[in-house]
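SAMPLE LOG
Freezer: B-3
Tube label: C17
Construct: single chain, 276 aa
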Amino acid sequence: MPRSRRSRRTLTVIILVVLSLSLISLDQNARTHSLTSGVKSVANDVYAPLRQGVLDVISPIGNFFAGAVNYGSVQAQNERLERTIGELRAAQLEQGFEKNQLREITALQNLPFLQALPTVTAQTQDQYSSNFTATITLDKGRADGVDVGYPVVGAGGLVGQVIQSFHHTAVVRLITDGQSKVDVTFGSQLLGIVDGQGPSSSMTADLVAPHTPLKKGEPMFTSSLDAASFPPGIPVATVRTFHTSAGASQETIDVDPAADLSQLAYVDVVQWVPST
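STRUCTURE (predicted):
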C-alpha cells in the first residue's frame, strides 16, 4: 500500500511537469496564446486561495525573523534617542541655571541701599551649616579686595559679614549664624538687635520695649549708630510674629531674613569699614 501511494504521487508530479512544459511551449506560440491564457487564468483561480493561505502562514514567520534580525538595530536607535533626550534635558537644566545666575548678577547690580559704595562680586563655593553655625565660602579673598569685617549683601538685603579672608577665598558668617548680631532700626527710629539663632531656628529681634507697636512684614534696616558694623539702610529682616508675655522686660519678636539665603550663588562684598 505505501509503495502504491508513492507511485501515484510520482506519477502526479510527472504529469504536472509535462503539463507545465506543454503550457510554456504553447504560450510561446502566438496561435495558442489565447488558449494558454485561459488555462493560466483558470489555474490562477484554482490556486489563488491556496497561495494566499500559504502566505498567511509564512508572513508572520518572516516578520518574526525580520524583527529578530533588526532587533539590535532598533535597540541601538532607542539608545541613541534616549541619549539625545538626556542631553536635551541636561541642556535645558543648564540653561535654566544660567538664567538664574544671570538674574542674580543683574539684581546685584541694582541694589539701591548700597548707594555708591564699592563692591566686589563673588561666587559662593561652599556652604556650611549646623545647629548653630551658618557660613559660606567665597571665591574672592584679600588679593581680590575682600577683607575681614566687610559686609556681604544679596539681592534682598544683608547676607552676613566676612570673618576670614585668605589669598583668593573668604569665609562669611551669615546673619542666621548663632554668633551673628546686627543693630537695626525700624518704625519711627526704634532700635533693636537682630540675633541669629542657627540656620534651623528663627532669628529674633531683641532689646525692643514691651508692647512696641509692630506689624507683620515690617522691615528692619541696619542702623546708623556710630561704630555700627554695617552701613546704614541695608534691609536685614522682616517681622514674622510678635507678642509681649506678662511681666516680660522686652517684646518677643521672630523675624525672617530680608535676603533669600537659599539663593546665594553670587553675593556682593561691600568694601566698607566702620568709622572710627
